[in-house]
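$ run holo --ligand "magnesium ion" --emit tokens
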Amino acid sequence: MSTLSTGSNLQLLFHFAIFEKYFKKLQRGRGMSALAMFKELYDKGSKSLEIFRQQAVSPNNKKVLKEWGISDAAKMIGRTPQNLRSLETQGKIKKARTKKNGKRTERIYNLKEINKIRDYLNLRPSKPKGAKTAIIGITNFKGGVGKSYTSLTLSQSFALMGYKVLLIDSDNQGTSTYLGGGFIPDLDIRSEQTLLNIITGETKDLANSIIPTHWDGLDIIPANLTLYNAEMVVPNQIYEHRQKTGELFPFYARLKDALNSVEHNYDIIILDTPPSLGFITVNVLFAVDGLIIPLLASGVDYCSTIQFASMAYETLDRLPKIDYQFIRLLLNKNKPYSAQSKDISDFIKKFFGELLLTNSMIDTEAVSKATANMQTILEAEIHPNDRKTFNRALSNIDEVTKEVEFLIKQVWDSAQYREAA
Ligand SMILES: Nc1ncnc2c1ncn2[C@@H]1O[C@H](COP(=O)(O)OP(=O)(O)OP(=O)(O)O)[C@@H](O)[C@H]1O
Ligand SMILES: [Mg+2]
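-- output --
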């Protein structure tokens, strides 16, 4: 006779049910081909991404940039709200759109409207006439240090200021494509729209890859997984060329050459790069005027950044000489109140001095809150409970952007380019 009480029997049954469920889970997929398993993963994943996108970008299935009230818009333009109202009354600028807020009717502006007013008032910043477009690479072969975060926030911040910006995603993971353009890289983007055909030498035409984003003044060249093929095609080309001529095949100049025909349309071009020093990154290193290298305040990240510098040095040493206007390290996910973070950032400061940007990017929860809705910090609609977190993050981004803008102005002002112009 069983010595178990009814309670224990029930418990046993319960455990058996759980075991059966897990057993079924464990059995799931057994005997299926690896290909079929990946296919199922891909199909389900793609479907879920599509639904996620629809939720994130509804109602138009397109990302729409947020709008600003008259105080913020006036601040962005550099005038007072009264001034904007009076320009409107005089008929000098278009009548603003309005929306109801309780009993009040408020004026609202999107970035396009703000830029129109800036243009009218001659207050839209741009590179000086004849100056070369500043092409900035955000690189580090260490993964997860904030290359995409930095690329996105800088591109969007400069676009908010009124600059004409091109963000180029050269990483097949497509983070900037997803967050910057609202595209699901492997569903929405065709391989011809990526840098693939440029890096493999199929074409020099970049213009067809440029897509306007929902931010006025910010265009994007997207990436998706197919871009990775460049890393397979180029080595063969190098090998064959060496066999024939004994010389290094100039694969590294392809992006620089292709940029020549489109760069004049922009004040600033920002390149997000993959976490590797492959053929695509070498093209980026060869095309830029300046580099920003994000790194985290941790020992491991610090060491691999030094390694990156050494490998980039060895690589560039084999190519024709090029000049940079600047290279700067940017400390990311900095925790000003953490002793460990402070120790390593003091250490980095001590050795690198002015090679390190004075301002660092703080570690902020605002990033994950915004990303959950397929948005960046700069476009997220802020919940009142999160206002403090977001405001701190936004003013931090502002400080970093201003510092980078200063470096970009050095590129525009450099005598070398002025003479060439
Ligand atoms: N300052 C920050 N505060 C909080 N989270 C951050 C910050 N910077 C980046 N992150 C988060 O850290 C993760 C890695 O950042 P990101 O994707 O920009 O790194 P990455 O260098 O581009 O990575 P990869 O090498 O894979 O391309 C992301 O989830 C990003 O949202
Ligand atoms: Mg990235």
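-- notes --
The longest strand covers residues 290-296.
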